[in-house]
């Protein structure tokens, strides 16, 4: 009996891959996460310039309302998590995007840009980790985007708005969470579904699910 039980284990592991195997990074995961990071880093650069006008309009309406514009900077982590589905994918993709953004140059400086990317990626990572890297549906994407918004806003409040009034802090946190849920969570989920339908993600679970393949 002991011998039979021991022999059965590899067969079961092959038919039902273990969590360790499912979560192991492949070369294609690294390549795609890197491509996503570079692509979204270019989006970040465009948004660095484009957000200035809307921010100047929103800030006088209600201090802290500019948090509604933070979502696009959170997109990389959400996309990395939804497509690659491996531990660290959100953080890795967000950091790559931040490195690209900082190398070209922005108004916040390289080190602080990369640090912000790390913190925002951790917000996404926390959510997908809570679901054991098994759920990647729309509610999880929305929650991940919102968490990234909250993490990023807390980071901003410490570094860029120290000593800010409670009203400003609460407004900034809430609007950043909303922006993260919509502009990173929802948009990231839609982009993932769109890419999956083209067949571009067939080597990933996200692609196989969308095309009805196991």
Automatic annotation (TrEMBL):
Coiled coil: none annotated. The chain crosses the membrane at residues 27-47, 67-84, 140-161, 167-191. Keywords: Membrane, Transmembrane, Transmembrane helix. This is Membrane protein. It comes from Microbacterium mangrovi. The lineage of its organism: Bacteria, Bacillati, Actinomycetota, Actinomycetes, Micrococcales.
């Amino acid at each position: 009996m002991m011998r039979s039980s021991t022999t059965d284990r590899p067969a079961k592991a092959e038919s039902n891959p273990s969590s360790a195997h499912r979560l192991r990074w492949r070369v294609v995961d690294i390549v795609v996460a890197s491509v996503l990071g570079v692509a979204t880093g270019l989006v970040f650069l465009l948004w660095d310039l484009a957000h200035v006008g809307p921010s100047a309009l929103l800030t006088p309406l209600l201090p802290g309302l500019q948090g509604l514009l933070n979502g696009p900077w959170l997109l990389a982590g959400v996309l990395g998590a939804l497509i690659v589905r491996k531990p660290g994918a959100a953080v890795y993709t967000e950091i790559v995007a931040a490195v690209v953004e900082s190398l070209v140059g922005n108004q916040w400086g390289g080190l602080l840009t990369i640090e912000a990317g790390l913190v925002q990626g951790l917000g996404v990572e926390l959510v997908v980790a809570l679901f054991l890297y098994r759920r990647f549906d729309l509610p999880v994407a929305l929650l991940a985007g919102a968490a990234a918004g909250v993490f990023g806003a807390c980071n901003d409040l410490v570094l860029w708005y120290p000593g800010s009034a409670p009203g400003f802090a609460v407004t900034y946190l809430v609007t950043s969470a909303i922006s993260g849920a919509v502009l990173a969570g929802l948009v990231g989920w839609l982009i993932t579904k769109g890419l999956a339908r083209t067949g571009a993600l067939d080597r990933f679970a996200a692609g196989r699910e969308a095309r009805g393949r196991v």
